[in-house]
Each structure stands twice: as C-alpha cells, then as structure tokens.
Amino acid sequence: MILSFGISLLLMGIKFLAYHLTQSQAVLTDALESIINVMASGFAFYSVSLAAQPKDQNHPYGHGKIEFFSAGFEGALIIAAGIFMLVQGIQHLQAPPELQALPVGSGLLAFATLANAVLGYWLVREGKQMGSPTVSADGRHLLVDSLSSVVLLVGLGAILWTGWYWLDQVFTFLLLGVIFYNGYRLVRESVAGLMDEADDTTLQQLRDALQAARRSTWIDVHNMRVQKYGADLHIDCHLTLPYYLDLKTAHDEGKRFEEVLIGASSHRVEVFVHSDPCVYQCCPYCHVKNCAVRKHPQTVDIPWTIENLYRNEKHFSEMDAPVAYVRDDVTR
Prior knowledge:
cadmium ion transmembrane transporter activity, Alpha-lytic protease prodomain-like, 3-stranded mixed sheet, transmembrane helix, two-stranded antiparallel ribbon, 2 domains, mainly alpha
C-alpha cells in the first residue's frame, strides 16, 4: 500500500501536467480522479495496518471490519469527485477551452495509464492472496481508472484525427459514467461486508471441503454462518452426531470437523461448532454402520449443498414427508 500511494502520487502529477499542456476537460476529469487514488491509497494503508493488529478486549473479533469501511470510503470519495467533475463539465459546455499540445499530453497519459494498469493488476492479485478487501478494492479502482484513461486516449485520438473538439465534452461524460459506476460498486461491496451479507463463493468452497472429508458420524451440518473480518473468517455451525457418543469422542469429532474448515481456506479461520444429538428422523440418511439404536434403515444419500448448510434445520428425512426438515428445537 505504501508503493501504491507513492505511484498514485506520481501519476497524479503526470496527469495534471498532461492537463496543463492540453487544457482538455476530459484529461482534467481523469486527473481529478487521481486525487481520489492518492487519498484512497493513504486511507487503505491505515486500514490494512489497523486490520493487522491482533484481537483485544474492545475488539474480540479483531479489527478486520475496517477494511470494508475503507472500501466504502474510497467509493464515496469517487462518487463525490464525480459530482464535482459533472458540475465542471456542464460549465465547460457553455465555454469549452481551446485544446492544444494533444500529442504530448496523450503520450503522458498513455504512460500513466499503463502504470496504473500494472499496479492495479498487482494489487488485485495480492489482495486475493491475502483475502484483503482493501487491497483488492484499491487495485480494482486503479484498473477501472486505467480503463477510463484508455477511453480518454481514444477520444483524444479521435479529436486529433477529425478536428472535432466538441468530442472532448462527449468523452468527459463517458468517463463520468464509468467513475460513478465504479464508486457505486465499491460502496455496494462495502455495505455487503459490513452487513455480513452471505458469500456463496466462500460457502461453496467450505462445502466442497466438507463433502470431500465427510465422515459417517457427521450425520448432517446446518445453520452454517460465515462472517468476514477483513482477511479473517469466523464460522459457526451445527454438527449432528450420534446421540450416544461420549463427551470426549464427540469433542474429537468436532475437532476433526473444525480442522477441515480451517484447512479449506488460506486465511485465518475461527470455528465454533455446536454439536447436536441425532433423532430418529435422521436414520434414513445416517451412514453410521452397525448402529445399535437405529430405528429405520438408511435409504437416502443427501449431499451437502449450500441450501441445507444455511438452514437452521436438520436435513430431509423421508420419515417426515411432507415436512422436509426437522428443527433442532422441535420433535415431529
């Protein structure tokens, strides 16, 4: 993030130099957004530093949520800058400035665009590896900024080719559309993280690991919830085990279950497992061999899916038809 901040500062200077040479409103729009890049990189550095701090008494789940706030802050800055650029663009419709030195300005902008794209791609890759929403958001912002700069370069080329200087205003408003969309997307992702919106991609990854390591004593898994705290995951769920297991055996089964979930992610994972005793409605899909208390034969094989992992109910039992699930707190 220190590298991102330094490069963003340098590229901002290059873009403003390009505007000084060309007097293009579209180039100014791109340069103004670079101010947001610098501010966002600075705040992102602070956020990542804070998120890396260990848990404490005031923050028992750690400080990772600051990363979602950082992404939302960056999106809000982008939208605010877009509104300012929109006002400036409308004002220049009445008195458009005279364009000049377009070849030199285009060359400077092309260099800044390439540097932004390389930096953005690297940040997105690093952010995914670390599971950091802040680093990924900063990288995606730079990639979108690079895309908008490509559009701008096309516009400057069109102006040089045709001599139609009014195209500068057209590409200004096209860039504003990209800027507003990027800002909205970052705010949307930030709110989703802060509100603990379900992440089906992460849950599918955990489900695949559990299905591959499934043991016969793990009768079903339900009420699984996954919360993200920056790069850290907090998982809690209910695991149905044979009711006759002694406390130590049940604890060992739960420990094996936790190890599968921890091994399914490359990030730090905290797991809380609530052990449920089986009920007779579980018999039709229970795979425990030679069960001395079985009341019904095993007749169905229920694969674990996102749907039945989410629900706060034991899995389907044909003994309960047409009721598809058995709640933990109700015997039916």
